[in-house]
Amino acid sequence: MVRPDQNTKDVVMLAVKASKLSANVIIKILKWFVENGKDNMKFKETTGKVDMIKLHEKSNSVKFLPNELDKEEMKLISSMFEKYNVLFAVEKQANGNYTIAFAGKDEQTIEYAMRKVIEEQNQHINKKSKIESIRKNHISYQKEREQKEKDKSKEKQMNDRER
Fold first, then answer.
1. What is the C-alpha to C-alpha distance for residues 91 and 100, in angstroms, rounded to an integer?
2. Is residue 9 part of a domain?
3. Cβ–Cβ contacts within 10 Å for residue 106, how many?
4. Looking at the domain assignment, is residue 97 inside a domain?
5. Are 109 and 84 within 8 A, CB to CB?
6. Helix, strand, or coil (residue 3)
7. Phi, psi at residue 87, to the nearest 5°?
8. Residue 43: pLDDT above 50?
């Protein structure tokens, strides 16, 4: 039978102490949550779509996108802001367009997200154009093939007549 050396015993003791420490930390965290309650303001979601008043309450600086947007554009930008955890508000204008305001601290995130959306849109457009080009090539190939078959059948008819 193999006897464990001192190093093995030390490693086992260290692992046991670490697991006890981890358990103690978890218990303390759980007690803290119970004492402070789940409705504590510190833990409420601070990103996503809110109304304009809450946006002004939660953010020191509020900035607006420079253009008014139609409904489709607003939905695209709203989904992008939610994807990138941006705090924002949407306000409908009298003319039916929308204005989007966002927390100033999220400006760099918005620039990054906008670049990503533009890249995705360009890739989508490129895929569509590639598909359209493939479809056109396929159609032209089919027409050429049909024409060749017609020519072959005409040649065969001519050869049959000559005989």
1. 6
2. yes
3. 19
4. yes
5. yes
6. coil
7. -80, 120
8. no
Range of the domain at 64: 48-151
Reduce the DSSP state of residue 63 to 3 states and report it.
Answer: strand
Residue 59's φ and ψ, nearest 5 degrees, are -120, 140
Whether the predicted model's global pTM rises above the 0.85 cut: no
| CATH number of 107's domain | 3.30.70.1530
Average pLDDT, the chain: 77
> For the chain, how are helix, strand and coil distributed in percent, rounded to 5?
70, 10, 20
Distance linking the first and last C-alpha atoms of the chain: 100
* Tokens 């981890």, located at residue: 22
Across 25-32, average pLDDT: 71
* Same domain as 63, residue 19: no
Which residues, 6+ apart, have CB-to-CB distance to 101 below 8 Å? 52, 55, 62, 63, 64, 65, 88, 89, 91
Classify the C-alpha dihedral 5-6-9-15 as positive or negative.
Answer: negative
Domain count, the chain: 2
How far is 73 from 63, CA to CA, in rounded Å? 18
State the Cα–Cα distance between residues 69 and 137, nearest whole angstrom.
Answer: 38
Q: Could you tell me if 40 and 52 lie in one domain?
A: no
Residues 67 and 141 in one domain: yes
